Amino acid sequence: MIIHLPVNMAQQQVEDLARQAEAICLKKADKYVLITSSKVKSLPDALKGYASEHFVLDTDMQLSSRQYDASVGRIDIADTYIGGDQRNTLMIAGPCSIESEEQIEQSCQMLLSLGIKVLRAGCYKPRTSPYTFRGLGLEGLKLLAKMRDKYGLKICTEVRDSTHVAEVIEYADIVQIGAKSMYDHSLLTACGKARKPVILKRGFGTTLQEFANCADFIMSCGNEQVILCERGIRTFETKTRFTLDLCGVAWLKHYTNRPVILDPSHAMGYDYGVPDLARACMAMGVDGLLIETHPTPCVAKSDAAQQLDHDAFRQMYASLKPVAAAVGRQLV
Amino acid sequence: MIIHLPVNMAQQQVEDLARQAEAICLKKADKYVLITSSKVKSLPDALKGYASEHFVLDTDMQLSSRQYDASVGRIDIADTYIGGDQRNTLMIAGPCSIESEEQIEQSCQMLLSLGIKVLRAGCYKPRTSPYTFRGLGLEGLKLLAKMRDKYGLKICTEVRDSTHVAEVIEYADIVQIGAKSMYDHSLLTACGKARKPVILKRGFGTTLQEFANCADFIMSCGNEQVILCERGIRTFETKTRFTLDLCGVAWLKHYTNRPVILDPSHAMGYDYGVPDLARACMAMGVDGLLIETHPTPCVAKSDAAQQLDHDAFRQMYASLKPVAAAVGRQLV
Amino acid sequence: MIIHLPVNMAQQQVEDLARQAEAICLKKADKYVLITSSKVKSLPDALKGYASEHFVLDTDMQLSSRQYDASVGRIDIADTYIGGDQRNTLMIAGPCSIESEEQIEQSCQMLLSLGIKVLRAGCYKPRTSPYTFRGLGLEGLKLLAKMRDKYGLKICTEVRDSTHVAEVIEYADIVQIGAKSMYDHSLLTACGKARKPVILKRGFGTTLQEFANCADFIMSCGNEQVILCERGIRTFETKTRFTLDLCGVAWLKHYTNRPVILDPSHAMGYDYGVPDLARACMAMGVDGLLIETHPTPCVAKSDAAQQLDHDAFRQMYASLKPVAAAVGRQLV
Amino acid sequence: MIIHLPVNMAQQQVEDLARQAEAICLKKADKYVLITSSKVKSLPDALKGYASEHFVLDTDMQLSSRQYDASVGRIDIADTYIGGDQRNTLMIAGPCSIESEEQIEQSCQMLLSLGIKVLRAGCYKPRTSPYTFRGLGLEGLKLLAKMRDKYGLKICTEVRDSTHVAEVIEYADIVQIGAKSMYDHSLLTACGKARKPVILKRGFGTTLQEFANCADFIMSCGNEQVILCERGIRTFETKTRFTLDLCGVAWLKHYTNRPVILDPSHAMGYDYGVPDLARACMAMGVDGLLIETHPTPCVAKSDAAQQLDHDAFRQMYASLKPVAAAVGRQLV
Lengths: 332, 332, 332, 332
Known about the structure:
homotetramer, 332 residues, alpha/beta, Alpha-Beta Plaits, TIM Barrel, 2 domains, eight-stranded parallel β-barrel, four-stranded antiparallel β-sheet
């Protein structure tokens, strides 16, 4: 249950009431928001007489639920925003991993030439084998920051585990929680206390319910800027790397109030399918796309097969605009 | 392996050679086509000196493979066609089941008002429970034929098992093999001997390789008019009925020479997601869409939750045209 | 809902009442059994005053539900039985396919030497590729019948589709419905009218609910001798052919009244894992095991990798007896 | 590739050679072990003349592969061991979460009465909802240590993320890496540097290959005491919580040299199925069982449905011994 209390109540009193109701307490500009387990179905006695509003929710997808707040949350990025009252679709592109200054320079210049505002590149790679490239780490973060300063691009990069979450939050403009890390409470908590947009990637074995619950996890720590990213789930089909779950996206759009972005590159795992899928994602009416592109995919140190080369990326990018227009959206 | 022999050879000799090579033999207008298991990797001795061409294939997806024939097969339907040298996307719409003449009349009139050429409606329903509606059977087929005569619509309907395959082939313009029946050899053989377009629906537990193999099954019986239909696979996610596998569609488009159509209604299982998904499918660049729509979904005898009402269908249909244009296709 | 009517009522009256209640009607030795959809939750008016008992069921798993009948159905096979008041576990073994008289002779002699009573061998193979061995068909059935006459073994063989169901029912002692055929209504109906035990194999994409519903399908046609067989479901794991679902078996044992048998050979897909799995299945306390064994697996025309050779089978068989004893069962 | 160098070489020289070969270097009692990516298929030039042995491996499952070391690793626990030259199966039991001193006292006494040596209980719970019980944390660890001192039980408890890994390693006798944390590099690295046995639980969306790779991750950091735990994977079947993958266990036993233990409680999710499954696991011939049992399951703060009460646990435990004997193992 979510309970609203008037903002003019004394903070100490509100916190005492929250404790009595075993509720998490958030202070917003215009109200206090108390959140109990969704198993609480009637207003706790302690809060009677104080609550200005209360919302009974079916599941622990509470703050992120359209039942609670029907409008899609607005998230400001660069000089634009997604969600809210606009139908913007944000392009986030770049290589799987930052590998060198030369490589990332090439990526930045390609993005700039197309007017793309957000660069993605991983510094901490969550590989399952211990014998493969694990990313440049802090050195990579610093190179990305250098690119931001030089080119004015916003930086989106992934946090892998709690040991470096502070660094990533410090350097990134958009913090990405990877599919393999989305159950990490300490990570979710750290991102929940940050004041930056967070892209939460769905685990490949994660149900929609768990996914939305994790969004609530972050939001219940105080950070409302949570973006959901579907990037393919693991199914019996292995001709493609994963299976992009657009039915699930329809569910997320219908039941949650979070902006939704899609990563067709990881889902497909092979470059040949990415352009078609990217157009499908755009027509699906989502708030953003995350596309991997590398100056020379065949020498990439990770995910070589799925990254578009720059020519293929440009061609695909050009083809997205008419699709965006056809569904009443702008590609930003 | 696929081997071509000159058309001017004596049929008896060709059949003898096929027997020696343990090959299936098809007579085309301009050649004989012999097909062995794909495990045969070099031209059988018996055929040396006769073969005009031969193709070594990786898997038993042979006739349906782009490695063998790189152009997408053309299939004539109504006064138009899909595949071949045009970028047409065919709309096939109608109720899950035909329930009564009144119901199907309403469906036909709605389709006609939009210029849609193909009506779908099931007569033999493959339900897993013995205690539910199983369709009107032959009576339904006759009603559909009546609608064809009256309105000039083409009829697409599903065959469930071998006991009524002859009837369905007789009455339908497009024979649909259901997801639960796609492994039925007798059905595949009967459809392979028919001279009508066949929509082969992917089983919800079927791999892409098996799916393509089944297309080969039908084609190796002599019927080249096979259309592949992806309609959702079964995954761990149960908030939606199935998971529409668009990554798989990218694979099918890349590796097979078959037209591909999509059924977002069965994949989603709920009407609210169908319009978004239909637009995504269109942007994916496929050859057709199969959409369930019912005059009054809430009283439908099967699949009530997923059928669009006529208003919702009209709205969705209107929105598909600009998407088609954006990806250089025509909705037919 | 299941409703019992007294056996001394006039059959015509009972049939009229069944029609009014839209119920399936079965005549048993001691009662009439009427079955409506499980959506019917209160006794239909027409039946008030007649019903001797009625059972409200949650789902269309009705006749097969422990809620309706808590005792496991007894099924007589050879000179023994499974289910009922005994804790017997039946061994059913033999090659994937019957390939020749010589091969099946060898199989029979091996079984006889161990005292095994039931021979399994497929005659109609449901392969997904059109270019592979499809079984000996009727010739195979006749060879199996010859073996029965010669050696006194009972014959278990698979029906693939409706076109040959009559033949299989005629020749087999136990009719097996294959995993790929379990949704075939005509097949289920034919088996439901037969008076022979039926092994229903779970489809690899089939939920437990659907599986139990299919058992009801057969039982509602009048044949109570339905045995459920779990043989592996399709999951994201592809190092093994399928994933044997023993959690599902626990569910089946808890919620249905059907004997349950297991096929570890198809689940595993590789001989090396079969003995361990067979022992696990035995300890699980099931009513039977279906194990593939071939005189010379490496030359088998189907499923070569998963068949045990006779030495490996003998060793495994010997190891099953102490496990059976440990869980209070007899291997028969 | 794994390369052995003589132990009498100078450590500095070995480290230099490892750097040249881009290899991880471990010093063992009798040799140096260098490990490169498995993509290296021939002995690096730098190592020629030095290598005493080298092993070409197919995948990055290297140290954990039977191809490299065919004997199952021995792991000492309490006054016994698993793996190595004995066929011991270790029982690890206790509640899902430690909730209070009173509760854990009851658990300990029950275990002691049966002669069980290892207590399991979670202190850091990785729940997907932010609004549920997250465990007692450090306070729980201290209570567990108190139980160890009082009763001589060994303690097995789960680490959730990197922020408390040091604490868990300090307090636990066996460190358990949870299914949701198994991709966490920092966690794997910390456990790899620890000198305690580690139970690595398979993620519910994790392939066997990735699972074995993670074992290599820990081993390549120097800790050889890695135990693999299968606890159910996520499939389309939702009547049970997960699907216990015994086919996968057969693969792990065949291809890896790691002891394997099983957790039927989490796989099943419901107490009714656990005893049958536990017996099946025992007959499968594994090295350990992890069973959840709670003094009063219905009031448990997590996983209430799947925990056995103490009576049910005792009954199940008694039934395991004859099964162990039947497969030539001892329950320890």
